[in-house]
UniProtKB/TrEMBL annotation:
Belongs to the TonB-dependent receptor family. It is a multi-pass membrane protein. Residues 123-219 form the TonB-dependent receptor plug domain. It is found in: Cell outer membrane. This is TonB-dependent receptor. One of its GO terms (cellular component) is cell outer membrane. It comes from Maribellus luteus. One of its GO terms (molecular function) is siderophore uptake transmembrane transporter activity.
Length: 230
């Protein structure tokens, strides 16, 4: 009888050890970076696993690491920003999340006041305009819209966007134009109707560093309504 009990005890021990190893094998570590305006790290943003509800905060460089199980999703949020859910497939090990600032007057105050942005000057170097705040259809073309709504931004006779206050290291002083994530020639603006635009962001100073030398003169980031739907 004692031998039988010993065998059962050994069997249960092995079973539980294997089960524990199986659970640990399924769990994996996900690392990531949370930014805003493509390049500004967000500090102290919440990253939560939908299944386990485990929560971590991003560090001073916007980085985080968290354990997830198969099928889990991440919810990334910060006060003043639009929350984002991230699906995780089995091959994902690194996640890059870019949170968008809410189109409200208090959003920037939250971002700076809550310490999400280490250098307030970086966030203030970004000018944002959203079609929810302004009827873009009142402008006949993109040049009039940009010139009329962004202080310190000029349009040259040949259609180049010039952002004042940006020191050029290139032969040209033209800002880089990015439409729906793709760098385009400034002539693209001739074919783009303001009514089809969702948002415009003007970036200067160190915030444009992610674009390298091409962004040295500043960057005009345009998101179309079609691009948003995609």
């Amino acid at each position: 009888m004692n031998t039988m009990k010993a065998r059962i005890s050994l069997f249960l021990t092995v079973f539980f050890v294997l089960a524990l190893l199986s659970v640990n094998a399924q769990e994996r570590l996900i690392k990531g970076i949370v930014t805003t305006f493509d390049s500004i790290p967000l500090i102290g943003a919440d990253v939560q696993v939908a299944g386990s509800k485990e929560l971590v905060k991003t560090d001073t460089l916007g980085r985080f690491s968290i354990n997830v199980n198969p099928g889990d999703k991440l919810k990334v949020s910060a006060k003043g920003f639009i929350s984002q859910k991230v699906k995780l497939d089995d091959k994902i090990k690194m996640v890059l999340v870019n949170l968008k600032l809410k189109p409200t007057e208090s959003a920037r105050e939250y971002a700076i006041g809550y310490g999400y942005v280490k250098d307030a000057d970086k966030l203030n170097a970004v000018a944002q305009l959203n079609s929810k705040d302004l009827d873009f259809s009142q402008y006949t073309n993109m040049y009039d819209l940009i010139r009329g709504r962004f202080g310190g931004v000029q349009v040259s006779p040949n259609g180049e966007i010039i952002i004042r206050g940006v020191s050029s290291i290139n032969l040209s002083s033209a800002a880089l134009i990015v439409v729906d994530g793709v760098a385009v020639d400034n002539s693209m603006l001739n074919n783009l109707s303001p009514t089809n635009v969702q948002s415009i962001n003007i970036i200067k100073d160190g915030s444009a560093a992610i674009y390298g030398a091409r962004g040295a003169n500043g960057v005009v980031i345009i998101e179309t309504k079609r691009g948003k739907d995609d």
